[in-house]
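stuck on this one:
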Amino acid sequence: MRRLFVAFELPSEVRSQLRAALPSIAGGRPVKPELMHVTLRFAGELDEETATQLESMLEAVTVPQHALSFARAGTFPSADSGRPPGVLFLGLERAPELLRLQAEIDDAVEACGQPREARAFLPHVTVARLKNPPASQVQRGIAALEQLQLPQVIVRDFVLFESVLGSAGSTYRELRRYALSPSAAE
């Protein structure tokens, strides 16, 4: 069984800026910049045949390249849930092209026998994992992320990754990269 997900990568300079801007948070573990990405769909544990089928199905995605801006920062679960946050993230705008890209990928995963996600798609990059952090430090982290002046990112492609769990955490292995078509505006 292979643990697969589909994501797009952020430019290295954006990942570095995100890591550098994050203040120290007690109980927080920053995500390594090389692991920062925007997950479009977690496909789950797939056998080899289904993984190969998904790899082929993703070739049918027809969304053009597009630019995205960063949006608000926050936590999962959200502060108003009454539960301690486990993830600190910086969101991206829910642009029509991004939503279409995610929907087409979701269709491909569903065609391979995986159920649709019950939760609404919230595009984001995880910047830290949290364990019982002080609320004031989490708010400081959110404020630091929201003050960043990051450039728009151009989504030129997406990647099918395998997540390999190890004693030192997860590592991501690129299985296949899918180029998006140039946009009509280019």
About this structure: Strands lie at 2-9, 28-30, 37-46, 66-68, 70-76, 87-92, 124-130, 153-155, 157-166, 169-179. The longest helix spans residues 96-111.
